[in-house]
Amino acid sequence: MNVEVDVKVESKRPGLANTSVKLVLGIAALVAAFAAAMLFGAADTTIRDLWQVFFSQKQGDTVTMLREIRLPREVAAILVGSALAVSGTLMQGLTRNPLADPGLLGLTAGANCALALTITMLPGIGYFGIMVACFIGAAAGTVIVLGISAVKKGGLSPLRLVLAGSAISAFLYAVSDGAGLIFKVSKDVTMWTAGGLIGTTWGQVQAISPFIIVGVVIAVLLSRQVTILSLNEEVAVGLGLRTVYVKLVLYTVITILAGAAVALVGNMAFIGLMIPHIVRAMFGIDYRTVIPMSAIWGAVFMLLADTLARTMNAPYETPVIAIIATVGLPFFLFIVRKGVKLTS
């Protein structure tokens, strides 16, 4: 059993040299996307300005704008793209459901709901309090969806997860909207939860980045276990994997990553769905490769989406969630049409 599973996994993993080349290309794409995001926008900037941001103490309107406005925004885009892509990758591996993303378990809806209630009831709580509320909301949404899905005998199934996640997400979003209307702060709630990077500050990035970095690192360290779980539950148990413990840790990581992303930029859909599929098409099904590559390409995608949102109608800004949804919805329909089977 041991040898058979290892052979199956290794046979689907590209050679080391090939993987190294793709890793270098991925990092190069990330650097290029970051440079483009810093250079393009409503304000005219040059490569010299960008050089001075990192390698000079020179002050000036353009350089200050890049350091204090655009740089934290693009760092946040990297963190959020990585967090959502990795959390979606873990979700698809654990549930063996190709339609899984952080929204499936009610994570983003729970975090949005907690954020809205915190803004309405505790307006002076500060950013750290909002971040903690998002973690709690994401965890609560996950527990509710998993609890409802597991009520029926036979355990969890992709179909029950999708149905329970959709129902609970709709309910939690309704609670968010209702809280905004009742307390007459719907505009403030909508501005925060609509999904965007406008107004991101260094303080927010510094508060949230440790959680995302630690979450991604833990996901990479447990990538072999995710690969085994993605194949078959019985195989994992037969190999001596402590499935309950590993799943608990991984669901905690998913909750932290999704909650942190919502606390930083609000609701972002489809990234956690698209990136894992794209990465698996490029690298195979071994999560030792898929998870770190998802972090890189999720960051690249988020940077490109934010750059397009800022430039396509400059000096006005298009909501970045609209850009992502324009790509994500056809991708979702493509995955469904491709032949996803959801057994009950």
Key terms for this structure?
344 residues, ABC transporter involved in vitamin B12 uptake, BtuC, disordered N terminus
Give a written overview of the molecule:
Keywords: Cell membrane, Membrane, Transmembrane, Transmembrane helix, Transport. It comes from Paenibacillus albus. Its main location: membrane. It contains 15 helices and no strands. With 344 residues, the protein is mainly α. The protein has one domain: Orthogonal Bundle (ABC transporter involved in vitamin B12 uptake, BtuC), CATH 1.10.3470.10. Helix 4 runs parallel beside helix 10 and helix 5 runs parallel beside helix 7. It is globular. The two termini are 28 Å apart. The relative contact order is 0.18. The N terminus is likely disordered.
| Major sheet attributes | none
The Cα radius of gyration reads 20 Å
Globular, elongated, flat, extended or rod-shaped: what is the shape? globular
**What's the name of the CATH homologous superfamily?**
ABC transporter involved in vitamin B12 uptake, BtuC
Given the helix and strand composition, which structural class is it? mainly alpha
Estimated helix fraction: over 70%
| Proportion in β-strands | under 5%
